[in-house]
Design goal:
Layout lengths: L20 H12 L2 E4 L2 E4 L41 H5 L30 H9 L8 E2 L13 E3 L7 E3 L5 E2 L1 H8 L10 H15 L3
Antiparallel strand pairs: 1-2, 3-4, 4-5, 5-6
Helix pairs in contact: 3-4, 4-5
């Protein structure tokens, strides 16, 4: 289910280098609707956090959702309402709260103990995939099996965020990128010999850094 507010003036996708006005507005709405703390991180409980990305668009009414087989339909719209200025819509809402520092549980595996997992996604996309990530974080999917003319892959700002393609579902961190570039799996399917091959690619590229 999608909710949209009509704006008085359209927002430009790229007004200047580093402009993230669209994502910041989306995030303020997402967290204003509700969130809770989970393992030291604020987690939206009403809206989907990935919907902050400007690549997320409304399904056209009358088209069929390929995942569910149901028709997309408009449930309610009031076109007579006055449009919003962005400042009036989200100006008084807060930015998402920052993650809290949490202590380690005894015996827990902490992913960032792996030095390669401390590398920022922007850096490993540049060195492994030869992709320069813009400030807004959207790039064409690195999956060679996914022709992605309109960038649908979001690349996080720090190592904890990783990357995720909203088109094909490929996602993960540094080893997942090394795997998918070679036509391999990502996420929980990346294991065994395929993981070892991906890890070797990462070690060859970053081992001396």
């Amino acid at each position: 289910m999608h909710c949209y507010w009509r704006l008085l003036n359209p927002l430009q996708a790229h007004t200047q280098e580093g402009d993230d006005t669209i994502e910041r507005a989306h995030e303020r709405l997402i967290y204003a609707l509700g969130y809770e703390w989970r393992q030291g991180r604020p987690t939206p409980t009403v809206a989907d956090g990935v919907c902050k990305d400007r690549s997320r668009v409304m399904r056209l009414a009358g088209t069929v959702n390929g995942k569910t087989g149901r028709y997309a339909r408009v449930m309610w719209a009031d076109l007579a309402l006055a449009p919003w200025r962005l400042r009036d819509l989200v100006g008084d809402l807060h930015d998402p709260p920052k993650p809290r520092a949490v202590g380690r549980r005894a015996g827990a595996v902490v992913a960032h103990d792996d030095p390669f997992k401390q590398i920022a996604p922007v850096e490993y996309f540049r060195r492994l995939a030869a992709i320069e990530v813009p400030q807004h974080g959207l790039v064409s999917c690195p999956n060679p099996e996914h022709p992605d003319a309109t960038p649908s892959c979001h690349v996080g700002r720090d190592a904890g965020e990783g990357w995720c393609c909203h088109g094909c579902g490929a996602a993960g961190a540094i080893y997942d990128l090394a795997s998918v570039l070679a036509g391999g799996p990502t996420g929980r399917w990346l294991r065994g010999a395929q993981f070892r091959r991906a890890a070797e690619v990462v070690r060859r590229e970053f081992g001396g850094t």
